[in-house]
Amino acid sequence: MSVYLEDLAVGQAYESGTFAVTADGIKTFAQEFDPQPFHLDEEAAKGTIFAGLAASGWYTASLTMRLLVTGHLHIAGGLVGAGVEEIRWPRPVRPGDVLRARSEVVSVRTSQSKPDRGIVQLRTTTLNQDEQVVQIMIANLIVPRRPAAP
Amino acid sequence: MSVYLEDLAVGQAYESGTFAVTADGIKTFAQEFDPQPFHLDEEAAKGTIFAGLAASGWYTASLTMRLLVTGHLHIAGGLVGAGVEEIRWPRPVRPGDVLRARSEVVSVRTSQSKPDRGIVQLRTTTLNQDEQVVQIMIANLIVPRRPAAP
User: Fold this and answer.
1) Residues 6+ apart with CB under 8 A from B131
2) How many domains does chain B have?
3) Least CA distance to B61: which residue of chain A?
4) What HEC string does chain A produce?
5) Fewer Cβ atoms within 10 A, N terminus or C terminus of chain B?
């Protein structure tokens, strides 16, 4: 069932499925988008700030989007971001981590300029298998209002 | 030459190379990370908020990281993000767009808790071939201080 602006309220929470991160996945993403030693090669990563192979923060962010899109929040018209207020990466994602995302509605408001939609602020925490937070993101979504009955 | 905290000052600017976006690139990223109709298929995208195939914002963000990492700002120890303060996507990236990134140093401060490093705030604007802004990002980088001479 598609969710409209009227269906969302502050405090509502959603939990995603899981995604198992591999060394290959970390390296493949890095080769294309973030080719730095600590994301590309176990040996080269040892002497760096990460002290071992670590996922690019953009891989973590992209995997979080995958978890959201394939998860339980089915917004009418899709998950369309109006922007991001904040991303934090309190600890790196490592090979073998199993990620999942927990989202909570922070605010809901109707648009002043476009009365057919609103903006929903969602706080999404990405966790690993040990319940450690690997990413916190606050993002604004564009959500349509429910069309009037014909 | 590697750049240390002492080498950076407010207002310094950097420009990246370019990256040509293709429909295939948009779809391949979306299949893995953001499988929604407006990022996957030209026909399905027509009736959506994007009115045509558009890149995932996370593809735009990841390509911007690629432009930064392969560009002219060579920070000692690599480009390591402490977090993102803001991302805006004022217009979608379309097939055929040629992107480049312009970064400017917003602030430079030494860490209170870790005196061997500092935090540099960088404002990065991603532009298309028509000088239209497709992404604005404000991010904090961890930058090492220059080691004392032996």
Assistant:
1) none
2) 1
3) A58
4) CCECHHHCCCCCEEEEEEEECCHHHHHHHHHHHCCCHHHHCHHHHCCCCCCCCCCCHHHHHHHHHHHHHCCCCCECCCCEEEEEEEEECCCCCCCCCEEEEEEEEEEEEECCCCCCEEEEEEEEEEECCCCCEEEEEEEEEEEECCCCCC
5) C
Q: What is the pLDDT of residue B125?
A: 98
CA–CA separation, B139 vs B92, rounded Å?
A: 20
> What is the ipTM score, two decimals?
0.95
Of B37 and A150, the one with more pLDDT: B37
Which residues of B make CB contacts under 8 Å with A? 29, 32-38, 48-49, 56-58, 61-63, 65-66, 69-70, 77-81, 83-89, 142
CATH number at residue B13: 3.10.129.10
Our CA-based measurement puts residue B12 at a distance from the nearest CA of chain A, in whole angstroms, of 23
Mean pLDDT for each 10-residue chunk of chain A (150 residues)? 92 96 98 97 93 97 97 89 96 98 96 91 98 98 88
Domain that holds residue B110: 5-21+56-144
Of all residues in chain B, the percent with pLDDT exceeding 90 is: 87
